[in-house]
Design goal:
With about 270 residues, the protein is an alpha+beta fold. The model has no long low-confidence stretch (mean pLDDT about 95). α5 crosses α6 and α10 packs across α11. A hairpin with a 5-residue loop joins β6 and β7. Among the domains are: about 70 residues; about 120 residues, Orthogonal Bundle (Endonuclease III, domain 1), CATH 1.10.340.30. It starts with a strand and ends with a helix. Helix content is about 45%, strand content about 10%. It has 15 helices and seven strands. The chain binds a DNA duplex (13 and 12 nucleotides) through α5, α6, α11 and α12.
Length: about 270
DNA sequence: AGGCAGGCTTTTA
DNA sequence: TAAAAGCCTGCC
């Protein structure tokens, strides 16, 4: 089926935004997008027109929520005043088209545990190795092969050697701790119902190897708490340079996480010095 | 109590 | 060689 999307929706920017590590480029404007037990091939075929290799029913049931197409990003960007905050305005222009996805909780948690102290290409590589080691070999609707993201039990069943083979380094024990936590039922989505953002972050931080940054990314990208503002090295530098008195939290609530993502999209500070 | 230094695996630039 | 979407431990 085809869809037209007039609000922000740039697949390339989302694919490179650093929130998902498993979108696979199939062409210049086309990606394979795995999510839980589903897999979508999506391509931009016109200015605001996209071809999805699924039907209406699956689109409504799975993908509309995954892409969070109900949110109005033009309105979220419009809250930034160019004169009052030229830095964030520029970041939002660069990042225009990015949406915060609703990703799988377990996959997001593991992906961001893996992300610590590494750059994005290295994260992708380890996630891919993990999928090949413990995931299932599957074919998408075009008949092409891909690997699913392994569930907690499959990861927990890996030997130390197999986990180490995913180039996880010292994060091996963290990934294993997360798998055991999930197998024990600690990642049920329902257990986060009615839980505040701060409490959700605290719950995840009880897992060994999950600190404030990893927990924040997981809550933002999987629980879709758009006001959560992860601070990594890149954002920390940007905050120091652009917001010496602190980021104006009240002004940008309840979408601080979206603005953080625009700031991240600007790239490393060294590349953005004017 | 809360902050800070050092160490940790491996890849990337 | 430094830095990378950090976290843990030990020390003060």
């Amino acid at each position: 089926m085809n869809i037209t999307m007039n609000d922000d929706f740039d697949l390339k920017k989302i694919a490179e935004s650093g929130q998902c590590f498993r979108w696979e480029p199939l062409g210049r404007e086309s990606w394979r997008i795995p999510f839980r037990d589903h897999c979508l091939r999506a391509a931009r075929i016109g200015e605001s027109t996209f071809e999805l290799d699924c039907g209406e029913e699956e689109y409504e049931r799975i993908w509309r929520g995954y892409f969070a197409l109900d949110e109005n990003y033009a309105a979220i960007r419009a809250r930034i005043e160019e004169r009052a905050d030229p830095y964030l305005y520029r970041a939002a222009e660069i990042g225009r088209g990015i949406r915060i996805l609703r990703q799988d909780l377990w996959e997001t948690l593991v992906s961001f545990i893996i992300s610590q102290n590494r750059n994005i290409p290295a994260i992708r590589r380890s996630v891919d190795l993990l999928c090949r080691s413990a995931g299932e070999r599957r074919t998408d609707r075009a008949g092409e092969e891909y690997f699913s993201f392994p569930g907690p039990a499959a990861v927990a069943a890996l030997s130390d050697g197999e986990l180490k083979g995913c180039a996880l380094g010292y994060r091996c024990e963290y990934v294993r701790a997360a798998a055991e936590h999930a197998v024990a039922g600690g990642l049920e989505l329902s257990s986060f119902d009615g839980v505040s953002d701060e409490e959700a972050i605290e719950k995840l931080m009880r897992i060994r190897g999950v600190g404030l940054k990893v927990a924040s990314c997981t809550v933002l990208f999987a629980l879709h708490r758009l006001n959560v503002f992860p601070v990594d090295t890149r954002i920390r530098k940007a905050l120091g340079l652009e917001y010496p008195d602190g980021f104006p939290d009240e002004r940008y609530a309840p979408y601080r996480g979206v603005y953080q993502q625009y700031m991240f999209a600007l790239g490393p500070p060294s590349r953005t010095r004017s």
